[in-house]
Model the fold of this input.
Amino acid sequence: MSIFSEVPQAPPVAVFKLTADFREDSHPQKVNLGVGAYRTDDSQPWVLPVVKKVERLIVEDSSLNHEYLPILGLPEFRSAASKVALGEDSAAIKDNRVGGVQALGGTGALRIGAEFLRRWYNGVNNTATPVYVSAPTWENHNAVFADAGFKDIRPYHYWDAAKRGLDLSGFLDDLEKAPEHSIFVLHACAHNPTGTDPSQDEWKKIAEIMKRRNLFVFFDSAYQGFASGSLEKDAWAIRFFVSEGFELLVAQSFSKNFGLYNERVGNLTVVARDNENLTRILSQMEKIVRTTWSNPPSQGARIVGKTLNCPELFAEWKDNVKTMADRVLLMRDQLKAKLQALGTPGTWDHITQQIGMFSFTGLNPKQVEFMIKEKHVYLMASGRINMCGLTTKNIDYVAQSIHEAVTKVQ
Amino acid sequence: SYSSLPCLNEEGQTFVLPLVGKLKKQISADPTLCPEYPSSLGLAEFTKRATEFALGKNSLALMENRVFGIQTIGCTGAVRLGAELLKHWYNTRAAWCGPVYLSSPCDGNIFEAAGIQDIHYYFYWDAKQRDVCVEKLLADLEQAPEQSVVVLSASAHCPTGADLSEQHWALIIQLMMRRRLFPFILLPVQGLCCGDLQRDAWPVQHCASQGMELLCAQSFSHCFGLYGDGVGNLLCVLKQSSLLSAVQSQADRLVRALWARPSVGGARVVATVLSNPEEVKHIVERCMLIRERLRERLRLLGSPGCWDHLIKQRGLYCCTGLNGQQVEFLSKRRHVYLLPNGCLNVSAINSSNLDYIAESIHLALTSAL
Done:
């Protein structure tokens, strides 16, 4: 008798199933607007030119060895990554109260942060501390915090389907009503999946309540630079909260803005009250990393570290990032313009108001089904599309398909 | 521990397979390789070869399709994933908390991190005899409750370097079958022990051939000098092929909340090397040669004590028997870094540093400290 005889089949991950279905589809005009990865106008993945350059430099450098990285990761990567989030002139960095933990992508950073909070935040091993994630959010947020041991994971109001925008009053209300010390997972920019971010004034309101009610800030920052094309703009919320004196965590991913999806490059930035706290926190982080992957992989961190620390390479990287962001912005403009030209019922301003890789189109599940089955345009059941899946070659077809979905299917 | 620091020489270099360097260059120049998200299960070519490497190509379990492998972040990642899988699914009615039996000495923290509190240690290393004590080991396992998980090192036990013979293994596995204990086998340095890749993996293959279910955590970091790339594999052998899809899907789900997917670079290199067994044999032979030469050097220098254990022990590690003071002397005065317990990594020694290292050990033994 197997000890595993009663193990149930886990449901497939929706976004990967979508891509699998897309791959099997032989329709000549099929379009994949599902998984969140950048594509060029030729629908190809893009190796950033600066990354190609740096990879060659690394491979040619025989002085580099294949050593284990320290448990917390490559030092020059960690400090540069935290600096990118908090800014060159960050007072917190100058005060020596900022540290980084190299992690396996954004997911790894979230997991280490979650494990730390479960063990050491709001008491010791307090698995009852509520964790709030936005409604909707990246579906893996739930799994990461649950597997880290948290028992009480709740949604906070975020997306207002009726007005296709931020449900600010619902959000603020949830902040007021949350038990003190609850943890809130905030998307630093380019909210996944809605593409809808709070404005600066709205962030200020959010911060005011969080400070007053002692709520914990955990930023998820997977798209810095990718959203607006500007690193500074995309980090505004993080920097604002830090300037307001919050102790907080930021899970950073370099998968998208460096195109390093398979190197798993992430960083958990810790902003502590002072250096003494930081030291103790990092010592516990180290213990957690030791029992998760022990030593993080070096390749991706070397690429990112080298790029961020060299002024010429850094400038070239910012340029590459802007190229990606600009293409997305162009597709947003064009999609909205085409829908308006077609006279597609409804308003389509949200396409250009939303930001980042994703857009919540507002298509309902029936319309999504029509898009997939009849038009071979693949998008998530929530109506989420990846703008990077749009190209100058397929945008007319997609706009036409959306038009048909909206006019034929209620 | 599962991933000890490699021993560094004065230049701070570890041994790097020339082939690895060459392969990395090839990979970086290959335009067809795409930077996309790998599967959460890892590079298929790697897991296939890694799994075959451990079980042997003709394994019945493989042919009956009741085996899966998942690429992990090094051996630690493999152990952690295995621990999480057991924690969530060993007893589907409630979260499983143990008991887990580990060798003494060993690092139990990974199971604790996964939320498994009930950890015990079975007798392993007899410091006086400088060897394994199988009688005491068997006595301890005899006391373990049924359905306990037992963690065993297939070869190159870390940190002692002292291994169980095939006869020992046969006894242990027989006991485990009788007492319904679940084997979780560590295979961190397969092939680097006795020159025979199959022999190092014999315990895994024997368990599988006896029809047991098992988990095996493999690491390829040491084998190929890929310390910075953390390439590991969690291998799972099931009793029935009908369970494979469900168990693998649950392991996949656990991966996605740990690190989402592994990094690919190192796995590509390993997959290529594994299809090239001559290279691996070369490292193995080299390690054996180094052990012999080190013992010979110490003899010529007139170092006190008996150094037969250098060649009696197998694998990447060697437990020198040096004490804490001597280890400190080596690192502070000679820049030769051993683990605090006196174990050193044989693969870091080469012809240009062998004399220096032998001299250093000699000085550590003979200087007034």
Notes: Chain B has a mean pLDDT of 82.
